[in-house]
Each structure stands twice: as structure tokens, then as C-alpha cells.
């Protein structure tokens, strides 16, 4: 009904009393009952009652119309529909507002998350930078301290040298003076004595003669007296038969006792040696004998309580070989733990490549003792060889801990019977060895090492479970070996700060230098490389100030390389010579 009274919507009242309300477009633009006049720029408001009148009139017409009720109903329905539409729109708007709020929150969350990530990134990079700064600062401080210490040391050394020189000069002066006075005193003394002797010569001669005569008489008297006493005693003893028999029996008993004791001791010693003593063929062993325990208790205790450690500690090898040896070490350790049968292994390769070193380390790691023999010691034993070999295996079998039996240069006595003319003794020794190693042992692990594995008798090869090649070190390994020994022989002593240590390092990048030398030393073995570094150390010690310089390193290396080349020439010559089979 609102359109009747002209409010809520700018409607023009219907002109036809029976028709439905007109379209919005047909409605008037002014609200009924109100008119606005603009006079001189001001708006004057005045009430227009004509609209009301029109409305009243329209209402009356509607009342009079026969469709009045339907019109009202329709209008009501339209109103309801519109209200529902409006409600729906309101709801949609509300939902949209809620959606927008949620979206706004999500975006704000996203923004906050991004900000947090950025902040943490910033914080991290700031922390990293500060850490770097701190490290650098620390390094600088350390370097400065080291330099200051070095300066102080140098100053101290200089001052000590000066003091030493001063003291030496003083002592020398004192000695010269004393020597001069002594010479003068001796001269005066000699002169005085010579003068006195000259003056008293006759008197002295008379005195000497008298005293000599007196001494002669006394000796003659003594001889006479003792002859009489011994003669009387002997006469008395021989006259008494009982005494003579007793003395003879006593002396015989004494001789028999002494002889028995001597033989008994040697037999017991031999028995103890066979059970506990080290066989003479064993050059070196970690097995502790009771005698060793008594002689060196501290060393023995250290050995007993030493941990197993890394089996490759200090041994530098190519990575593939290292991993293979690690496997062998693990197998050996587990065999010992489970009381299993040990494997027989052959290490072959050029001399000085770490075969012995690793065998010792393997024993330590696996909780076994080690014993080192050399094939070269067995060959010259001749007839004794067989019993010595049995002694070694008996001794190895009696080990409670288990033993790594390492035979270096094993080819010296285990060579092919067919190629070399074998002596009977050598054949017997080889047979003894084959007999004792026919079956694997739970007591010892056999490792044979050789530079010429092709020389082994076939029966020996048959007894070996694993062959490991120790090749010459490559460039990387050479660098690692040189660095290891440089640190051990030079860098550690030079930086130990020990007062009596005179070894010093000149100012150069030794890591770079060592790398350079590792490129030049191709063909050198681990032993040659360790000796090379040792030579550097020796040169520094031999120098006046004990400082190792780049020049010393270079000179030494050049010399070592010349020597290595010469050795290689000899080896090549040796190979060229057609070696005739020799009887061994
Ligand atoms: N791979 C290596 N890593 C570190 N040092 C090594 C290596 N090889 C050799 N050396 C050095 O050389 C020395 C001798 O090594 P080792 O006795 O183990 O050689 P080897 O192969 O048994 O030689 P040989 O056949 O002459 O007995 C070691 O004491 C060590 O100083």
C-alpha cells in the first residue's frame, strides 16, 4: 500500500482504479506532498497535499472496484516476494562478507608466514656471517699469538745465545789464566825438586840400599816359616788315614753335586724354553713371556691394556685395497671371537708397501698376538731347519690368545721344488712346513708375504685362502704418506714447544710443497717416502739453526730420486740376467 501514499518509492498513483500498480518508469519523479523550489540558490521546502488527495481518491476507487481484494492480495504477495528477495540478497552479501573476511585472514596468515621465513633466513645468514667473523677473528688471534710466541722464542734464544757466548768467553779466559798459573807452578816445583834431588843424591842412594836389604831379609824369613808350617800340617794329615778318606769323599760328593745341579738346570731351562720361550726363528713378537713381564712390567702392562684400534691406522693404501683389508680384519676378529678356523693369506707386492705394518695392525685389532719370521733365516739352517720349523708351530699352537704368524720373504724357502735344484734339507723343511699347515688352525693365522709370489711351490698356493696385492702407492697415496710423515717427523716436533727441541720450519706452505713432491716421486714405495721425509728432518737438524727450508727439501728430494732411479736400473739389469738355477 505504500505506493498509495507516495513513500518508499517514487511512484505515481495509478490512474486506472482497477489496474495493477504502474511500472516504476511511469511513476513521478517527485514525492507526493513535497515540493522544492530553488530561489536565488536556496531551496525552499513546501508541502503539496495534492498527492494525498490523489491517494485518497485512488483508495476509494479501489474500494469500490470489484477486484479490490485481489489487488490487495497481489500487492501483499509482491511485497512478500520482494522482502524475500531482499533477505536473500542480504544473506548472500553476508556470506560474501564472511568469505572475504576468511580470505583476508588466510592472506594475512600467508603474509605472516612469509615474513617469518624471511626473518629466519635473515637471522640465519646474520648468524652465519657472525660465526664466520668470529672464526676469522679467532684464527687471526691464534696466528698472532703463534707469531708472538715465535718472536718471543726467537728473542729468548738470541738472549740465551748471547749469555752462552759471554759465559763461554769468561770460562775460556779463566781456563787460560789457570793453565798459565798451573804451568808456572809446575815449572817452579820441578825446578825445586831437581835442585833438592841434586843436593840429596848420595844420602838418598844410601837410604834406598838399606831399605832394599831389609825387604829381602823379611821375604826369605817368611818363606822359611810358611814351608815349615805347611810341611808339618801335611805330614800330620797324611799320617791320619781317617782324615784323608773323609776329605776325598767330601770332595767327590761336592763334584757330583755340582755336576748334577749344572745338568739339571740346563735341562729345566731347555724345557721351559720349549714351552714358554720364543723360538730363535721368531724375529719379533708381541707375545709376552714371563721373563719379559719381569724385565719390563710397565711395557707389558701397556701392551695388555692397549685397545684394539683401527686396523689401518697409519697405513695408507688405495681405497679399494683399504676396504678389502678392512673386510679381512673384520673376518679375523669374528673368527677369533667365535673360536673359528683362521684363513691363510698371502700379501704380495714390491718391498716397503706396508705388508708387515698391516699384519701387525691386524693382529692388534683382532686381539691376537703377532710373530714375525723371515724366510731368509730358515734357508741357511740346514739340518736344524726342520726342528726349528716344528718349534715355531709348537710355540704358535701353545698360544692362548691366538697368533698372526707372519712369514716375510716366504719364497726364500717355500719355492717351487721343480724349478730350483733343491737340497735335501730344503725339501725336508718344505715338507715340514706343508705338514704343519695342511689344515687350518684355530690357534694361528698364517700370513705369507713375498715380492715374488710366482716362485711359490704349488702346494703352498693351494693352502692359501686369499691373495692380496700391495701395489706401489699412487699419487694420492704418496701425498697422504708424505703428509703423514711430515706431520710426525717435522710439524709435530717443530710446533711441540719443547724447550730442547731445535727443529723449526721456515715460512712456506708445506702442504703445497708436499703435494708438489708427491707428483715427482712416482714409483717410490711407502718405505722410501717415509725415509725421504726423515731425510728432510735430518737435514734440518744438521743445519746451524735447525730450520727446515724449501731448498733443503728440494735438494734432498732430488738426491732421493737419483738414488731411486739407480736402484731401478740395478733391478732392471738383474731381471735381464738369465739366472741359472742354483743349489740351495
Ligand atoms: N702404505 C704405507 N703407509 C704408510 N707407511 C708405509 C706404507 N708402506 C710402507 N710404509 C713405511 O715403510 C715401512 C716399511 O713397511 P713394511 O715393513 O710394512 O713393508 P713391507 O711391505 O712389509 O716390506 P718388505 O717386503 O720389505 O718387508 C713402514 O714402517 C712404514 O714406515
TrEMBL record:
Region: Disordered, residue numbers: 1-46
GO CC annotation terms, alphabetical: mitochondrial inner membrane; mitochondrial nucleoid
Pfam entry (one): ATAD3_N
Domain AAA+ ATPase: 341-474
Main location: mitochondrion
InterPro entries documented for this protein: AAA+_ATPase, ATAD3_N, ATPase_AAA_core, P-loop_NTPase
Gene3D superfamilies associated with the record: P-loop containing nucleotide triphosphate hydrolases
Pro residues bias: start-end ranges: 11-20
Gene Ontology MF term list: ATP binding; ATP hydrolysis activity; zinc ion binding
SMART domains: AAA
Keyword ATP-binding listed: yes
PANTHER family: ATPASE FAMILY AAA DOMAIN-CONTAINING PROTEIN 3, PUTATIVE ATP-ASE
Name under which the protein is recorded: AAA+ ATPase domain-containing protein
Organism from which the protein derives: Acrobeloides nanus
